[in-house]
Amino acid sequence: MKPYTNLLPQEEQQDISLERIQSRLLNFFILVTISVLIVALLFFLGRLYLSSRISDMRQQIEDQQKLVSKENNQKLKKSIDTLNAHLNNLVSLEQHHAQWSEALIAFARLVPQDVAVDSFTATRQTGVIKISGFAKTRDSVLQLRTNLLSSPYFKDVDFPLSNLNRATDASYHYSFTINQDELIKAPSP
Questions:
Q1: pTM
Q2: Which residue ranges traverse the bilayer (predicted)?
Q3: Residue pLDDT tens, the chain, 189 long
Q4: What's the rounded Cα separation, in Å, for the pair 29 and 118?
Q5: What CATH class is the domain 100-189?
């Protein structure tokens, strides 16, 4: 292999290297944003599906009730009672359904520009979210934590001292909890 000689001054070589890193970070943030939007769209479509199912079930119940009143059929009345119970369960589920998409969008807005999120893990049952990545400065890591603490969607943000080891090119990891009460209060799409 022929040796490669770079005749550019050292300063321009560093500028080119920094531009490559900046391009990679921009691509990463674009991918994260697109991923968050896709997840939000999936949650929205799921909600539309549930709403459609509820209205279909309500219509079926009304039709069944009309039939029962005409025929006075006990077996059919029992079926309607079961269907009503299922409908009430769906309505209850819809009212207490957590709006994770709102929290994910809020999270995406809280991340400072010079902070990269390499790993994002959320556990729906416990509401625990774990993130890790790197930032250009220690102050950016602290700013991310401050942003999380100021958001109504997140609580119990841990503060590992290992996040403060380096002043520049700092890696970090946080775990925090989704505020379930805020998710239930979130507006419907």
A1: 0.47
A2: 28-50
A3: 677 677 778 888 899 889 999 999 999 999 999 999 999 999 999 999 999 999 999 999 888 877 767 766 677 778 888 888 888 877 776 665 556 778 888 899 999 999 999 999 988 788 899 999 999 999 999 999 999 999 998 999 998 888 888 889 899 999 999 888 777 665 544
A4: 10
A5: alpha beta
